[in-house]
Protein backbone atom coordinates (compact mmCIF):
# COMPACT_ATOMS: atom_id res chain seq x y z
CA UNK A 1 0.00 0.00 0.00
CA UNK A 2 1.20 3.54 -0.75
CA UNK A 3 -1.06 5.11 1.88
CA UNK A 4 -0.58 4.49 5.59
CA UNK A 5 -2.76 1.66 6.91
CA UNK A 6 -4.69 3.21 9.79
CA UNK A 7 -7.27 1.87 12.24
CA UNK A 8 -10.26 3.95 13.29
CA UNK A 9 -13.41 4.10 15.38
CA UNK A 10 -16.41 6.42 14.96
CA UNK A 11 -18.18 7.72 18.08
CA UNK A 12 -21.53 9.43 18.58
CA UNK A 13 -24.86 9.53 16.81
CA UNK A 14 -25.83 13.02 15.67
CA UNK A 15 -22.55 14.89 16.25
CA UNK A 16 -19.93 12.28 15.44
CA UNK A 17 -16.18 12.23 15.62
CA UNK A 18 -13.66 9.72 14.29
CA UNK A 19 -10.72 8.49 16.36
CA UNK A 20 -7.70 7.44 14.27
CA UNK A 21 -5.23 4.99 15.82
CA UNK A 22 -1.69 5.58 14.58
CA UNK A 23 1.08 3.02 14.84
CA UNK A 24 4.68 4.33 15.06
CA UNK A 25 5.58 6.43 11.96
CA UNK A 26 1.98 6.43 10.69
CA UNK A 27 0.24 9.67 9.78
CA UNK A 28 -3.10 11.20 8.85
CA UNK A 29 -4.01 14.39 6.95
CA UNK A 30 -6.99 16.60 7.75
CA UNK A 31 -8.71 19.81 6.72
CA UNK A 32 -8.00 22.83 8.86
CA UNK A 33 -10.60 23.18 11.62
CA UNK A 34 -11.55 19.50 11.89
CA UNK A 35 -9.05 18.62 14.67
CA UNK A 36 -10.61 17.65 18.00
CA UNK A 37 -7.96 16.07 20.30
CA UNK A 38 -4.79 13.95 20.27
CA UNK A 39 -2.60 11.90 22.60
CA UNK A 40 0.76 13.13 23.81
CA UNK A 41 3.57 12.24 21.41
CA UNK A 42 1.78 13.08 18.15
CA UNK A 43 3.53 15.69 16.01
CA UNK A 44 1.40 18.18 14.09
CA UNK A 45 2.75 19.67 10.85
CA UNK A 46 1.23 22.18 8.42
CA UNK A 47 1.88 21.14 4.81
CA UNK A 48 1.30 22.50 1.30
CA UNK A 49 -1.49 20.67 -0.50
CA UNK A 50 -2.13 17.15 0.77
CA UNK A 51 1.49 16.00 1.02
CA UNK A 52 0.72 12.77 -0.84
CA UNK A 53 3.84 12.99 -3.03
CA UNK A 54 6.99 13.27 -0.96
CA UNK A 55 9.38 13.64 -3.91
CA UNK A 56 7.34 15.99 -6.08
CA UNK A 57 9.63 18.93 -5.38
CA UNK A 58 8.74 22.56 -4.84
CA UNK A 59 6.82 22.95 -8.12
CA UNK A 60 4.75 19.85 -7.38
CA UNK A 61 3.87 21.20 -3.97
CA UNK A 62 2.81 24.54 -5.48
CA UNK A 63 0.60 22.77 -8.03
CA UNK A 64 -0.94 20.62 -5.31
CA UNK A 65 -1.70 23.69 -3.24
CA UNK A 66 -3.11 25.46 -6.32
CA UNK A 67 -5.61 22.65 -6.84
CA UNK A 68 -6.94 23.28 -3.35
CA UNK A 69 -7.48 26.96 -4.13
CA UNK A 70 -9.67 25.98 -7.09
CA UNK A 71 -11.94 23.99 -4.78
CA UNK A 72 -12.22 26.92 -2.37
CA UNK A 73 -10.08 25.29 0.31
CA UNK A 74 -7.04 26.59 2.14
CA UNK A 75 -3.56 26.35 0.64
CA UNK A 76 -2.54 24.24 3.58
CA UNK A 77 -3.55 20.98 5.22
CA UNK A 78 -2.52 19.59 8.60
CA UNK A 79 -0.66 16.29 9.02
CA UNK A 80 -0.44 14.36 12.30
CA UNK A 81 2.36 11.82 12.86
CA UNK A 82 3.06 9.32 15.62
CA UNK A 83 6.78 9.66 16.29
CA UNK A 84 6.89 7.53 19.45
CA UNK A 85 6.91 3.82 20.21
CA UNK A 86 3.41 2.45 20.79
CA UNK A 87 0.01 3.41 19.45
CA UNK A 88 -1.35 6.96 19.68
CA UNK A 89 -4.83 8.36 18.91
CA UNK A 90 -5.93 11.55 17.17
CA UNK A 91 -9.59 12.55 16.70
CA UNK A 92 -11.46 14.70 14.19
CA UNK A 93 -15.01 16.04 14.60
CA UNK A 94 -17.96 16.64 12.30
CA UNK A 95 -18.48 20.32 11.44
CA UNK A 96 -22.27 20.10 11.98
CA UNK A 97 -24.88 17.39 12.75
CA UNK A 98 -24.62 14.39 10.46
CA UNK A 99 -22.68 11.19 9.82
CA UNK A 100 -19.03 10.43 9.16
CA UNK A 101 -18.62 7.97 6.27
CA UNK A 102 -15.47 5.81 6.09
CA UNK A 103 -14.32 5.32 2.49
CA UNK A 104 -11.88 2.52 1.72
CA UNK A 105 -10.47 3.75 -1.59
CA UNK A 106 -9.17 0.29 -2.49
CA UNK A 107 -12.81 -0.82 -2.71
CA UNK A 108 -13.67 2.04 -5.10
CA UNK A 109 -10.96 1.40 -7.67
CA UNK A 110 -8.65 3.94 -6.04
CA UNK A 111 -10.86 6.98 -6.69
CA UNK A 112 -13.87 8.59 -5.02
CA UNK A 113 -15.53 11.87 -6.07
CA UNK A 114 -17.15 14.10 -3.43
CA UNK A 115 -18.49 17.56 -2.74
CA UNK A 116 -15.66 19.98 -2.01
CA UNK A 117 -16.73 20.55 1.63
CA UNK A 118 -17.39 16.86 2.43
CA UNK A 119 -13.79 15.74 3.01
CA UNK A 120 -12.79 15.45 6.68
CA UNK A 121 -9.50 13.49 6.93
CA UNK A 122 -7.57 10.61 5.34
CA UNK A 123 -4.56 8.36 5.79
CA UNK A 124 -1.24 9.91 4.84
CA UNK A 125 -0.59 9.13 1.18
CA UNK A 126 -4.15 9.71 -0.03
CA UNK A 127 -4.27 12.41 -2.70
CA UNK A 128 -6.92 15.13 -2.36
CA UNK A 129 -7.32 16.72 -5.79
CA UNK A 130 -9.90 18.24 -8.12
CA UNK A 131 -12.34 16.64 -10.52
CA UNK A 132 -13.08 18.82 -13.55
CA UNK A 133 -16.47 18.59 -15.20
CA UNK A 134 -16.24 18.20 -18.97
CA UNK A 135 -19.85 19.18 -19.61
CA UNK A 136 -20.90 22.83 -19.78
CA UNK A 137 -24.35 22.31 -18.24
CA UNK A 138 -22.92 20.44 -15.28
CA UNK A 139 -20.44 23.22 -14.63
CA UNK A 140 -22.92 26.09 -14.95
CA UNK A 141 -25.83 24.59 -13.03
CA UNK A 142 -24.41 21.83 -10.85
CA UNK A 143 -24.11 23.98 -7.75
CA UNK A 144 -20.40 23.15 -7.42
CA UNK A 145 -19.12 24.83 -10.59
CA UNK A 146 -16.86 22.82 -12.88
CA UNK A 147 -14.98 21.35 -9.94
CA UNK A 148 -15.56 18.68 -7.33
CA UNK A 149 -12.96 17.01 -5.14
CA UNK A 150 -11.48 13.61 -5.89
CA UNK A 151 -9.81 11.34 -3.35
CA UNK A 152 -7.25 8.97 -4.87
CA UNK A 153 -5.10 6.22 -3.44
CA UNK A 154 -5.48 2.91 -1.64
CA UNK A 155 -6.01 4.06 1.94
CA UNK A 156 -8.88 5.14 4.18
CA UNK A 157 -10.60 8.51 3.79
CA UNK A 158 -13.45 10.01 5.78
CA UNK A 159 -16.19 12.30 4.45
CA UNK A 160 -19.05 14.00 6.28
CA UNK A 161 -22.74 13.88 5.36
CA UNK A 162 -25.15 16.40 6.89
CA UNK A 163 -28.30 15.11 8.60
CA UNK A 164 -29.14 11.51 7.72
CA UNK A 165 -27.05 9.65 5.15
CA UNK A 166 -28.49 7.40 2.45
CA UNK A 167 -26.30 4.90 0.58
CA UNK A 168 -27.60 3.89 -2.85
CA UNK A 169 -26.20 1.00 -4.88
CA UNK A 170 -27.12 1.71 -8.50
CA UNK A 171 -27.26 -1.06 -11.06
CA UNK A 172 -26.05 -0.59 -14.63
CA UNK A 173 -28.30 1.97 -16.30
CA UNK A 174 -30.26 2.70 -13.13
CA UNK A 175 -30.91 6.44 -12.63
CA UNK A 176 -31.22 8.42 -9.40
CA UNK A 177 -32.25 12.09 -9.38
CA UNK A 178 -30.98 14.13 -6.44
CA UNK A 179 -30.98 17.74 -5.31
CA UNK A 180 -27.56 19.03 -6.36
CA UNK A 181 -26.66 20.07 -2.81
CA UNK A 182 -27.63 16.71 -1.33
CA UNK A 183 -24.88 14.76 -3.08
CA UNK A 184 -22.08 13.69 -0.74
CA UNK A 185 -20.07 11.65 -3.21
CA UNK A 186 -19.97 8.70 -5.59
CA UNK A 187 -17.46 6.35 -7.14
CA UNK A 188 -15.84 6.84 -10.53
CA UNK A 189 -18.16 4.41 -12.36
CA UNK A 190 -21.21 6.65 -11.77
CA UNK A 191 -22.13 9.03 -14.60
CA UNK A 192 -23.05 12.48 -13.23
CA UNK A 193 -25.03 15.09 -15.14
CA UNK A 194 -27.51 17.95 -14.62
CA UNK A 195 -31.15 17.78 -15.70
CA UNK A 196 -33.61 20.66 -16.05
CA UNK A 197 -36.77 20.08 -13.96
CA UNK A 198 -39.08 21.47 -16.64
CA UNK A 199 -42.64 22.76 -16.46
CA UNK A 200 -43.49 26.40 -15.78
CA UNK A 201 -45.26 25.64 -12.48
CA UNK A 202 -42.34 23.55 -11.23
CA UNK A 203 -39.87 26.22 -12.28
CA UNK A 204 -41.69 29.22 -10.80
CA UNK A 205 -43.52 27.75 -7.80
CA UNK A 206 -41.75 24.48 -7.02
CA UNK A 207 -39.25 25.99 -4.60
CA UNK A 208 -36.74 23.21 -5.32
CA UNK A 209 -34.44 24.98 -7.76
CA UNK A 210 -34.32 24.56 -11.52
CA UNK A 211 -32.08 21.50 -11.83
CA UNK A 212 -31.64 17.95 -10.55
CA UNK A 213 -28.43 16.00 -10.40
CA UNK A 214 -28.88 12.91 -12.57
CA UNK A 215 -26.74 9.98 -11.39
CA UNK A 216 -26.61 6.87 -13.56
CA UNK A 217 -25.15 3.55 -12.42
CA UNK A 218 -23.47 1.27 -11.97
CA UNK A 219 -21.88 2.42 -8.73
CA UNK A 220 -22.35 3.64 -5.18
CA UNK A 221 -23.85 7.03 -4.33
CA UNK A 222 -23.97 8.71 -0.92
CA UNK A 223 -26.75 11.28 -0.32
CA UNK A 224 -27.24 13.65 2.61
CA UNK A 225 -30.56 14.95 3.94
CA UNK A 226 -29.13 18.23 5.29
CA UNK A 227 -26.50 19.95 3.12
CA UNK A 228 -24.79 22.83 4.88
CA UNK A 229 -26.09 25.36 2.34
CA UNK A 230 -29.67 24.40 3.24
CA UNK A 231 -28.94 24.58 6.97
CA UNK A 232 -27.30 27.99 6.61
CA UNK A 233 -30.20 29.27 4.52
CA UNK A 234 -32.76 28.29 7.15
CA UNK A 235 -30.69 29.89 9.92
CA UNK A 236 -30.35 33.14 7.98
CA UNK A 237 -34.05 33.18 7.14
CA UNK A 238 -34.94 32.80 10.83
CA UNK A 239 -32.38 35.27 12.14
CA UNK A 240 -33.78 38.44 13.76
CA UNK A 241 -33.77 41.50 11.56
CA UNK A 242 -31.64 44.47 12.58
CA UNK A 243 -33.41 46.81 14.98
CA UNK A 244 -35.20 44.29 17.18
CA UNK A 245 -35.80 40.69 18.20
CA UNK A 246 -38.50 38.45 16.76
CA UNK A 247 -40.84 37.92 19.66
CA UNK A 248 -43.56 36.86 17.28
CA UNK A 249 -41.81 33.71 16.03
CA UNK A 250 -44.31 30.88 15.98
CA UNK A 251 -47.21 33.33 16.08
CA UNK A 252 -49.84 33.44 13.36
CA UNK A 253 -49.16 37.16 13.03
CA UNK A 254 -45.43 36.63 12.45
CA UNK A 255 -43.85 39.90 11.29
CA UNK A 256 -47.10 41.81 11.88
CA UNK A 257 -46.89 40.80 15.53
CA UNK A 258 -43.49 42.46 15.75
CA UNK A 259 -44.91 45.72 14.45
CA UNK A 260 -47.76 45.59 17.00
CA UNK A 261 -45.20 44.88 19.76
CA UNK A 262 -43.37 48.03 18.81
CA UNK A 263 -40.19 46.17 17.76
CA UNK A 264 -40.05 47.81 14.32
CA UNK A 265 -39.14 51.49 14.46
CA UNK A 266 -39.53 53.84 11.55
What are the SSEs and their pairings?
Blueprint: E1 7-11, E2 17-22, E3 27-30, E4 35-38, E5 42-48, H1 57-70, E6 76-82, E7 88-93, E8 98-104, E9 111-114, E10 119-123, E11 127-132, H2 136-141, E12 147-152, E13 156-162, E14 165-170, E15 175-179, E16 183-187, E17 191-196, H3 200-205, E18 211-216, E19 219-224, H4 228-238, H5 255-261
Antiparallel strand pairs: 1-2, 2-7, 3-6, 3-10, 4-7, 5-6, 8-13, 9-12, 9-16, 10-13, 11-12, 14-19, 15-18, 16-19, 17-18
Kindly summarize this structure in a few lines.
The protein is 17% helix and 41% strand. The protein is α+β, with helices and mostly antiparallel strands and 266 residues long. A hairpin with a 5-residue loop joins strand 1 and strand 2 (17-22).
Question: How would you describe this structure to a colleague?
Answer:
With 266 residues, the chain is α+β, with helices and mostly antiparallel strands. The protein has one domain: 4-Layer Sandwich (Double-stranded beta-helix), CATH 3.60.160. The protein is built from 5 helices and 19 strands. It has helices spanning 57-70, 136-141, 200-205, 228-238, 255-261; strands at residues 7-11, 17-22, 27-30, 35-38, 42-48, 76-82, 88-93, 98-104, 111-114, 119-123, 127-132, 147-152, 156-162, 165-170, 175-179, 183-187, 191-196, 211-216, 219-224. It has a 6-stranded antiparallel beta sheet. Strands 11-12-9-16-19-14 form a 6-stranded antiparallel beta sheet, with helices on one face. The termini are far apart. Mean pLDDT is 77; it is low at 202-208, 247-253 and 259-266.
